[in-house]
Amino acid sequence: MKCLSPFEIEQYILSSPTSQSLEVADHIAACAQCNLIYHTLLEEQEEWAQALFEEKLADSFTAQVMASIELVELEQVTVRGKKRNNPKRIKFLRLTMGVVLLLIVLSAVILYSVPTLAETLRSLFVKNNVDIGLLRAQEFGLVEHPNIKVKDKGYTIKIDEAVADPTRVIVALQLFRPNGKHDRHRLVLSDENGNKIEIKDDHGKVVGDLYDMGYTEDFYYMIVNFSEPLQTDHITIEGHITKLGGKGSSNPILQGDWNFNFSMDMTEANKQTTSTPIKGSYTSPDGLTVTLKRITRMVQGVRFEFDTELSEEALERSPGELWKQQGLKFHFEDSAGEEIHSVNTRKVPHKDSTMSRSSMPGDKPGFMHWSYTFKYLPLDTSYTFVFDGYFITEKDGSTVQFEPSKLKEHPIPFAFDGDELMLNDFTVESPPNTNGSEQEGSLHFSGRFRNETMKSEWILQDLEGREYPLSGQGVSSIRGSGWKDGYIVIVESQSNNKKNFFEFRAAGLTKIPDQLQLIRTIVNRLHTNVDWSVPIMEISEK
């Protein structure tokens, strides 16, 4: 068995004992290098656990226990005659009081040892939310507790945790209803309603806006990734919130004042941050230029940054705002050619340790700033960045005409730009099997897509020129074996002795017309005709 990467060993440590591979365990035990990495990572995990879940009781523990005892009312016992000197009764009373005191002490210990339900739900460190970057921030003492609590009109906004470094800020924000329960859907941040949470540097310049990641149903997981690492020793978080509910929420608008602000010290995070410039530029045959910029190592992870720019010809294919909808495909290899991790690949299996990503338009059309933050990239050893391709929304006009009533007996192919579909049937569906309360036309098809399906746009057009925008419905899966191949494959299902295919639904099309035309107006085109890789070597500061 070949040696494991630090990422693979970390995944092995985090997996449950029942799912851990015996082959991996045997290799780690026998291999000196992997064994060293294993124990190093294991020690880090133990340190994080101790930092996150301290067992030490607070200094005020004894005082609060005694205060609790003072509140306990003991029933007065009246003993008459000789019974007042009954040693058995005195012993029983002493035993009873001892049990009561023991229960009080145990209750206090439980209250200090186990966080309240509200505290657990709001924490950035809930098991399903925490990432390795947050754990590292906790280890270095970079998690701040601003203790923000703003109440108006019965609703309360509360912030107990915030984490910041030069590349990102994360804030755990809670919203409570008048009855004290969490409200996860009433706060909407948008330009339309004026609600926003801004990040300002120490000169008062706005450097970013927080948005909700939506990781949890119990609090707002607010985050911002900066296009450039911040050069500031302090930041200020300013919340401008005057409305709850409205657009994007099922609740009516409630006017109020939930504004807040607090500052965060960045000096320690800055000390733990180093940047290394990286060089390399490549222009694809279809007009996308990629230029590498830097690698930033900080407490919360390793950030890889680059810019892209489209040629004039490429911009013509993506006019208006289309050029902003794009994505990159790449991976990293170690010196032996083994995958470290990859981004947007269809290769199965693959490794992905992406913690966050950011893509922001630059100061001119076609120019984009990109950053990806990973859990790990090698240090003091060479590795390679390999560019596998990109996808971008472009104008399209691929079309096929068909007779809907004859599709079931005579399926029609749609084959353009590597996409291979077969139109199998056309029906009119009625509620509740629709996206709304009205009937919908439904085009059933099977096959596979080479291009990306997200952001592509389709319509049906009848003989009178009426157009019906389409929405997809069905199941698909990714299949591929290499870095540049692979397809999005339509998954066919079987129920009631009937094959179920993927569907394009057309609202407003309530009758089966004699003829229809399927038109793809926008395609999220995949470009893999690229050939570029860059060796990278970072040297740690001794």
Write out key terms for the chains shown.
542 residues, alpha+beta, 13-stranded antiparallel beta sheet, 6-stranded antiparallel beta sheet, globular
- How many strand elements? 33
Please tell me the overall pLDDT: 81
User: Low-confidence parts, pLDDT < 50 over ≥5 residues?
Assistant: 48-58, 71-84, 107-121
Strand content: 35-45%
- As a percent range, the share of helical residues equals 10-25%
Shape: globular
Report Rg: 30 Å
SS content category: alpha+beta
Largest sheet geometry: 13 strands, antiparallel
Distance from first to last alpha carbon: 33 Å
List the helices and strands and how they pair.
Layout lengths: L5 H9 L7 H9 L1 H21 L8 H10 L16 H27 L3 H6 L9 H8 L3 E2 L3 E5 L2 E11 L2 E9 L19 E5 L5 E4 L1 E2 L7 E6 L8 E7 L2 E2 L9 E2 L4 E6 L1 H5 L2 E4 L3 E3 L4 E11 L2 E10 L1 H6 L8 E9 L4 E5 L10 E8 L5 E8 L8 E20 L9 E5 L2 E11 L10 E10 L2 E11 L4 E7 L2 E4 L7 E4 L2 E3 L2 E3 L1 E6 L8 E12 L4 E5 L6
Antiparallel strand pairs: 1-3, 2-3, 3-4, 4-8, 5-6, 5-9, 7-8, 9-12, 10-11, 13-15, 14-15, 15-16, 16-20, 17-18, 17-21, 19-20, 21-32, 21-33, 22-23, 23-24, 24-28, 24-31, 25-26, 25-32, 26-31, 27-28, 29-30
Helix pairs in contact: 1-3, 2-3, 3-7, 4-5
